[in-house]
Design brief:
This protein has 9 helices and 4 strands; from the N terminus they run H-E-H-H-H-H-H-H-H-E-E-E-H. It is mainly alpha-helical and about 210 residues long.
Length: about 210
């Protein structure tokens, strides 16, 4: 189930990108609509499996376990009230993306995570951020670092490919590593935790 879920997951970000236009594809002119959809879906289906396997591999490093198993606690005194407040704010921020795209584009990567976590918190379900309350940052750190690692290789393989994506990002569109602006790699950090939250929907049931 992880592969089809991964495809749907990334198509959602493709939809959000229509409002901000942070990336676009070059060299796909010869693909028909069905052909493009097929190959894009095939590629998108590998995102979550790559993230999960990399995060689990990082989890085998003893130093990571030792360093972040009992780091500092980051809990909220009234979690359900906080979840309701965050849900309203992040939902409104997503709605405002198209209007204030040059200012709110970072929320494309942050808001979906907060929406997921807020809904889970309001429904009484355990979230990927719940361990932070007891100082356990292993999951968050593993998936964030996994996202940076995967992102680096995705950007490297994309660079110079005949069919590839390119970025147009307001204010930070400089100091590129491959096609990605340097500060753009920061977006992989919350994206990694989003991957953890989505993957948990399937993995927790297996």
């Amino acid at each position: 189930m992880l592969f089809p879920l991964s495809a749907l997951f990334w198509w959602f970000f493709e939809y959000l990108n229509r409002f901000v236009g942070n990336w676009h594809y070059v060299g796909i002119e010869d693909f028909g609509a069905l052909e493009y959809t097929f190959f894009a879906t095939l590629a998108f289906s590998t995102v979550l499996p790559a993230m999960v396997s990399t995060a689990e591999w990082l989890g085998t490093f003893g130093r990571l376990d030792t360093a972040f198993a009992s780091w500092f606690p980051a809990g909220l005194p009234r979690p359900k009230l906080a979840a309701a407040f965050v849900l309203v704010i992040t939902t409104l921020s997503l709605a405002a993306l198209a209007v204030f795209r040059d200012y709110l584009f970072p929320l494309l990567w942050i808001s979906p995570l907060l929406v997921i976590v807020s809904i889970q918190g309001l429904s009484g379900r355990t979230t990927v951020l719940a361990p932070l309350a007891r100082g356990d940052w292993r999951g968050v750190v593993s998936y964030s670092v996994a996202a940076l690692l995967c992102g680096f290789f995705w950007e490297m393989w994309n660079y110079g490919s005949l069919s590839h994506w390119e970025y147009t990002v307001a204010y930070v569109d400089r100091f590129r590593i491959f096609e990605m602006p340097l500060l753009g790699y920061a977006g992989y950090l919350p994206f990694g935790v989003e991957c953890a939250a989505i993957a948990a929907l399937v993995l927790d049931r297996e």
